[in-house]
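Quick note —
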Amino acid sequence: MSNNRARIGPDKAIVGVWKREVGELSTRNFSHRLGASEDLVLRLEILRKLEKHRGCVNTVSFNAAGDIIVSGSDDRRIFLWDWEMGRVKLSFHSGHINNVFQAKFMPLTNDRTIVTCAADGQVRLAQISESGGVVTSLLGSHQGRAHKLAIEPGSPYIFYTSGEDGLVQHFDLRTKSVTKLFTCHSTHDRRGVVNLNAITIDPRNPNFFAVAGSDEYTRLYDIRKYKWNGSAEIDQPVNFFCPEHLVGDELVGITGLAFSDQSELLVSYNEHIYLFTKDMGLGPNPLLSSSASISSEARESGPDESTETSQSRTNVIEKSGPQVYKGHRNRETVKGVSFFGPKCEYVVSGSDCGRIFIWRKKGGELIRVMPGDKDVVNCIEPHPHAPMLASSGIETDIKIWTPEARERATLPPNIEELKPRRRSWMYRLSSPQDMLLQLLSMQNQGSSPDRDGESSISSREFLELILTFNRQGDGSSDDGDSSGPDDFFS
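Predicted structure written out below.
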């Protein structure tokens, strides 16, 4: 892959400053141009590491101002960081009894309201008083792990959660009420419930939210279709998204979702990452859509033209299908995926090989690969305003990346050679509770009445689970009792 790419050089930067000074370029547009500069992306380096957690850091998130990071870990604690100074502002026990998977500030609450979800399936609320005291409470729960939550943009009250039980829930902090919206079922009857790994809300139209997990589809829902009197669920998506070549593939799954500011949908599969626009959906019935497409092609061509038609269909997919981003590896953990840049000019993801990958959104060219963890990078969180990132993974620290390197980075020559260490299970198992929760999730996934007496947990899956627990038992990152009085750091 060539490294000879056009970049914003010093001359163009000087011209940009001159245009801003003479009024030909607004301050906002100048800021956007600077923030989107590929030169800054190529100069990202680690500014500092935030080190206090005692387990894998599974979630990092900035507040709206961008000056505070909230993080959660296998140690079940929540930390609030002044990342610029590299110090902890506040630390408290989350109340969860297993690994914290996500923690986020609620908007417009002066950073005093935090919601969390975890491997114990619980959804919890943390309220921080003006004196620094913290009260946590249980809001709801899932049967199995709850990986992600999604906050309604600009709302200090409304958020959603999804879990491995396939359940999607709606929370309103004004009344502390929880509404079980629906359970996500596979389009393939025998596969039962879809274990959900990701949920995200469209920032341009918060009525729409998307979920995805253990099958090939991302499902888009409209909350306006829900009957709040409980007379009906919104279990029918308004649209499905999936690359055509993956439809019907039972070996693929989805770990991460993100919407851009233009309602583009970024989907991270366990093979590649895909970018969909609104017009790429399969409609509310993906099976009917796929069948109609194949039948139409069959009618238009005779049996002797089947090979030619297949090739033609492949060409159409390549021309009109979603943009694809390749190079990273995503088979071992539930990784997020994000846009980066003031107008979502880049796509960023972690990888099983312990590195961070950055692609140009337009065209899908890989432009940056950075070492981010000795094992796996799971989380990459862009700053809300500045060209910087926070990342975390299996290691116990959080890395802050800023564009301060003196030299521009180039792509390493051995990207394909640095393969991750092979593991036999998608999730880390660090306690007996972990294993029981995973068994429960597997039971839910295989509980369809149409399995005709098949065992809901295959012997191979069960054996892999036990072996993985035995291997990881001695290396648990939850290396101490995190309970006790709240810790405050000045």
